[in-house]
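Why do we care about 3D structure at all? Because function follows from shape, and shape follows, mostly, from sequence. That is the central idea of this module. The next example makes it concrete: a single protein chain, its amino acid sequence, and then its structure expressed as tokens.
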Amino acid sequence: MKVLVIGGGAREHALCRSLSLDPDVNALYCAPGNAGIAEVAELRPVDALDGAAVARLATELGADLVVVGPEAPLVAGVSDAVRAAGIPVFGPSAQAAQLEGSKAFAKDVMAAAGVPTARSYVCTTPEEVDEALDAFGAPYVVKDDGLAAGKGVVVTDDLAAARAHALACDRVVIEEYLDGPEVSLFAITDGVTVLPLQPAQDFKRALDGDEGPNTGGMGAYSPLPWADPKLVEEVMETVLQPTVDELRHRGTPFSGLLYAGLAITSRGVRVIEFNARFGDPETQVVLARLRTPLASVLLNAANGTLDAEPPLRWSEDAAVTVVIASHNYPETPRTGDPIEGLAEVAAEDGPDAYVLHAGTRREGDAVVSAGGRVLSVTATGSDLAQAREKAYKAVARIRLDGSQHRTDIAAKAAEGR
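And the structure:
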């Protein structure tokens, strides 16, 4: 099978790594890719937002499957263009991807499907913003309605900060605050059958102790030893299947990866948000534990034959990933700094610990930083404590001037909290 992956972050590196280990995959391409992905896939240049260009590339390569990784190409309709070219594609249509592209659309779908979520208001004027903030009170939760690369949400006790964020957006969703721990659960679907993956937890705040500004994610771990064993079953019944059914009934079937961001509140499970693709950094730890070859699962989802897929097989091991970010992230990051220590991790820590590239590029013989989140160091172990130890041992080998990372990823869970 020839597979083309669209994107160039750590999520796509994790996908390419898994696909490169699949015996059914005999040719693997990534466009545009990054310096790390080049080690496991052949890179091709493409504008990932240009559906026609992606479809042409897939046709030229004779791709049997196209996997669209990031949210922006999905919302831009890249999957539609590839489908129109007659090539199976893993990723929802532009209409279905509005589940991530518009918070207001997602709320409407959830209301129609009876999916539990936070009470909310959609606001477009200063008067509506003030009324909604007053109705819910602190902590204030203000979400940009559109795509914002994981940084469009403000949760704050500061009324002025909440109002400022709301007024900086064209349209916002203001909702009640949900208490309790957060969980990410992915599901692969062909628009009818829903196949859940293993839950993970990520860390959105930039600093230890969940302090600092929101980011795209600073680390993650799986499994969740503290979670209810019936959590996946409950989320399937109350969230994932009803949402997929509702979108199909609307004539916009969702085929691809449905990501539910959940809060385990005192009143039960509530949906915080939906994403229309594999989440980063949770993908890194979920795929590290997946033992079923990935390509056939994605192809069955693309072809509408997911019901033929046998139950997924999982490792009993735990996985932890720690994000190394550039200086000044999540504000305007500094780029162009050389990255050292990658070969040391490969030589000393592999295969239980390895580095997935996000914002990197190659300059001659050197690999340099090229974005905010630069690397994800991922490790597996017999339990979270061991996986965590291996991950941070590998992190210590990486040298990137001015870089930052959290030191408490999975710490509480590893201690049984």
